[in-house]
Amino acid sequence: MVRPARIAALSSLVVAAPAAAQERVIDIDIPATTAGEAVRMLGRQGRVSVGIHDASLLRLPVAGVRGRYLPQQVLERLFAGAAVRVRRVAEASFVVERAPVGPGKPRVMRPQRAAAPPAKPPAAVQDDVIVVTATKRDVPLSAYAGGAEILDGERLSLAEGARGTDAIEARASSVTSTHLGPGRNKLFIRGIADSSFVGPTQATVGQYWGNSRITYSAPDPSLRLYDVKRIEVLEGPQGTLYGAGSLGGVLRVVPNGPDLGMMGGQAWGGVQAIQHGAPGGDGGAILNLPIVQDRLALRVLGFGGIDGGYIDDRQRRLHDVNRVTTIGGRAALRYAPGSDWTIDLTTLAQRIHGDDSQYADREGDGLSRAGSVAQPYHNAYWLGEMVVNKRWGKTVWTTSFGYADQQVFEQFEGPRLIDITRLDVQPSVDAQPTVFRQDNHIRLRSAETRLARRGIDGAGWLIGLSLLQNRASVRRDTGEAPVRTLLTGVRNVANEATLYGEYGMTPTARTTLTLGGRVTQSSLTGESQDVPEPVALRIDPEARATRHETRLLPAASLSWRPAEGVVAFVRYQQGFRPGGIAIRQNFVQRFQGDRVETTEIGARVGRRRFDLALTLSYTRWRNVQADLVDGFGYPTTANIGDGRIRSVGWSGKWRPVDGLELDAALYLNDSHITPAYSITPATSVTRVYAITPAYSGVPLAIEVGRIDETRLPNVADRSGRIGIAYSRLLRSGQRLDLNGFARYIGKSTLGIGTILGIPQGNYLDTGLELRVGNERRGISLAATNLLDSRGNRFALGSPFLVRQQNQITPLQPRSFRLGVDAHF
Q: Which of 95, 79, 66, 88 lies closest to 22, judged by CA?
C-alpha cells in the first residue's frame, strides 16, 4: 500500500523532456513559491524532470529565479540555504534529496556568488541549446548544414495534438499535405510532390516515430501528437541516413519516454462546436509509473476523439455526413540496468474511421454535394518497437527493431460503366453508379544498428547497418453485395539491406566538412492477385518478376561559422525510391525506380532576441513515379518523366520582450516536368491517349488528357505563415498563454495533364488559442478558421468523378474548442 506522504512526494513529477542531449542554458521565470510548485514550473519551462522523494521538501518556501541558467544552477538557487543536494541521474533529469548527515554538520548547498548567470556560457554548453537528433549523431543546429525545423513538443497544445499531422503542417512551413481525410493523406516537404493519389509508390517523405519508420508505401497514419517531446523536420533528400523514400526529407516525432524517478500524469478533455456542422469532442490521459525506482518505469497514454461532420449530401438528404472518429493509445516500458544501458519497449495503436468522404462540390455554399452512395474509409495502425542504447561518454551504440501494420480501406462512388474491361468505351454519365472498394494492407519490418560519436561543432562519425522488408497488398472489387466483382489486385514485396556511414571533421576552427555514403541492395517482387495470371500479364509480360537493384548514395556538406550564432552552409544529397508493380483496371504493369539529387545553400542566424534562416535549393528528379487516375477513373501508377524543382525558404523569429515571440515564414516553389513518353491517340474518344514509357515498347496506361510540360502537383507556388506566442504571469499566480497563426497556401493543381490540372489552393487558414491556469490545471479556448473560409485544399473525392471537375475539399468551417487539463 502506498502511503499518502509517498503519493505527495511522487506528485512532484514534471513529465518533460530535454531539447538537447546534455544540459543547456534555459530561460526561466519562477516566482517565489513552494518547492513543489517551483519544480513543476521548472519542468514545464525548461523541459527537465525533477524528482523529490521526501514529501516534507515539497512545502519548503523557495525564492524566485528569473534569467538564463543551466538547470542545475536553477535548482541550486531555488534551494539555496537548505540542507539538500541536487543529483543529476540522467539526461535533463535531477533528484533533490536531503544531504547525507555525517559526523559533522550536514552538507548545505550555497548559492554562487554571481547574482546573475554568466553573460557568455561555455562554448560546449552554448552549442547544445538546440540539437538535431534526427542526424543520428546529435549535431548542434548551430553546425548543421541543411534546412531544418525543430518543433518543441511542449509548445503543442492539446487541441493541436488532436489534429495529428495537420498541426505539423500548420507550424512547419516546408511541410504540405493532401487533404483527402485523416489517415488517407500524403505528405510532401519542400516541393517534392509526385501525385495526389495513394498507390503502391513509396512515400516521398520518410516518417519516423522515435527510431522506427512508420510508413513505406502507405498514406500518413496521422498519429495523434499527444505527449510528444519534439518534432524534427529535415528538408531535402536524406538518402544517406534514411535510405529509400526520403526524397523530400524526413519527419521524425520523438515521444516522451518513461520517467524512472517519479509518478505522475495528466488528464484532459474538450468539447468542439463547428459552425454549419455537428459537435465533437476529445479526451485522454497519461500516467507515468515507476516500477523499480531509477531502474524500471511504465508510461501509458489513452485517447479518443470525434470530429463533427460538416458536409451535407443533397441527393441522399443527409446532414454532416463526414464525421471522423479516432481512438488510440500508447504504452512504453523503460529499463535502465546501469552503466548507461537503456532498453525501451514501445507499442502504439490508432484507428481512424470516417463515416463518409470529406469532399463537396462547387454548387451551393461549398459544404454539400450530391452523392449516390456513402463513401466511408478507415485506417487501422499498429506499431511495436524495441530500442537498446549504450553510452560511453560521447560514443553511443543504438540497436532498434520495429514492426508496423497498417490497413487502409476506402470506398468510392464507382464508375458509371457497363464493361470495365473495354478500353475503347467512354464512361457514360447516365449509367447506373456502382461502388468501388480498395483495401490496402501494409506490413513493415525494420532493424538497424549503429555506432556514433559526437564531436565539437558537428564533428564526429557514424556507421550503421539496416535491414527492411515491406509487404504491401491491394485488393479491389466493385458492385454491391451479394453480387461483387473482384478486380485485379497486386502484391509487392521490397527487401533492403544497407550499409551507411558519415564522417564530420573540422579542418579549421570555424568550418565543418561532412562526407557520407550509403550502399543499398534491394530486391523487388511483384505479382497480381484475384485474377488468372495469363490475363494479368496481358499488358506487360515482365510485370511478374523479381528484380535486384544496387544503389550508391553519396552526400557532402560544408558549414562555416563566421561569428557566434551565425552559420552558412552548402549541401549535396541524393535520394531514391525502388520500382514495383501497379494495376490498371484488370491488368498489371511495372514501374521503375526514381532518383533525386539536390544542391542547397543557406544560412542561419541565432540570437537571444531573434532567429533568421534562409535556404535556396535546386533538385533534379529523374524518372518520376506517380500514382495517377486512368481514363476511366481507376487508380494506376507509372513513371511520368523527369522534373526539376527550385525552392526558396525564409523563416524568422523575433522576441522583442520576454514572453512574446513573433514568427514568420515564406516558401517559394517553382517546378517543371518533362514527359518521357511517346503519346499517341488510342481511340476515337477525345483526349484519351496510349502512354508508352521510353524504356518499354508496350503501352502501360490509358490517361485522360494529354500530359503537357507542366509543374508538379499539390505543392503551392508560394506559401507563407505568421504567428504569435505570448505568455504572461498574472497577479493571481495564474499564467496566460496566447498562440495564434495565419497561413496562406498559394495556387497548385490536383495532378498532371489537361483533366487533372484542376486548380486548388489560394486560401488563408487561421487559428487562435488561449489558456489560463498554472502548472497543475488550466482551461483553454481554441478557434480555427476564424474567417470561416471555404478554400479548396484537395480537389478530389471519388476518382471516378474527377473528369467533371466539380469536386472540392473545403476547410473545416469556423470551429471552437473549450478544454480543461489537469496534471497530477
A: 88
